[in-house]
Amino acid sequence: MSEPDSSIGDLVRSWRRRRRLSQLDLAVEAEISQRHLSFVESGRSRPSRDMVLHLAERLAVPLRQRNEMLLAAGYAPAYRDRALDDPGLAAARHAVDLILAGHEPHPALAVDRHWTLVSMNRSVAPLLAGVDAGLLEPPVNVLRLSLHPRGLAPRIANFREWRAHILARLSQQIENSADRTLIALMEELKGYPVPPGAKPYGAGAAPALGGIAIPFALRTPGGVLSFLGTTTVFGTALDIALSELAIESFFPADPETAAAMRLTVAAPD
Hints:
The chain has 269 residues and is of the alpha+beta class. The protein has helices at residues 8-18, 23-30, 34-42, 49-58, 63-72, 90-102, 142-147, 159-177, 180-190, 240-243, 255-264; strands at residues 108-111, 117-120, 216-220, 223-233, 246-252. Helix 1 (8-18) packs across helix 3 (34-42) and helix 8 runs antiparallel to helix 9.
């Protein structure tokens, strides 16, 4: 996350470099002159509010950081930042609850921008058997829960592959957002030990769906359950919290997992 006292020129330059664009690249993309962009970055020209938002759009800057850019340029924030339990977000929270419940008997959960658990369906809890109670105390970070030695890590059959997948995804989020909390989380996760007996990379679990994706393979008393994960976001969100909310849904990667989940979760009353 950018320093609070960063100028708008510093922020534009920082995001441009983060996106690996030259001044000419961004000027062409934004349909402005390179000279104008140079003046903005150097502080010789103060961009209009519309120009700040235009450049932020071209740079794919997250909504939270767009507000920071507006403030740095001397303008009011454009996007609301409400807590997820705000009454104004009730419709969105209801939609999330419907998605999570509708995905049963397969596990699904909602997380915020820092991978803090917001909500989960009934299918998740049975998979957490044996996890240290301290890791389940709110706020629960699901990446920590997954890779911590007292979390799910010892039961992940393809731990090395899953760990590499999580770290790569987190790295991409850091690239997109420059979020300091995520950077600290990355360093924490990298410091966790590999569980004793973890299989070498590439030998942790049979590839799912012809090898097109990395499964989440979890050892249980009834055998290994293998899931394929997908992510759902609110693509047109104008509220910061909603734009940062993600629903992680897991589908059975084989018939055995599908059958096991049908038996694990009782039918609704």
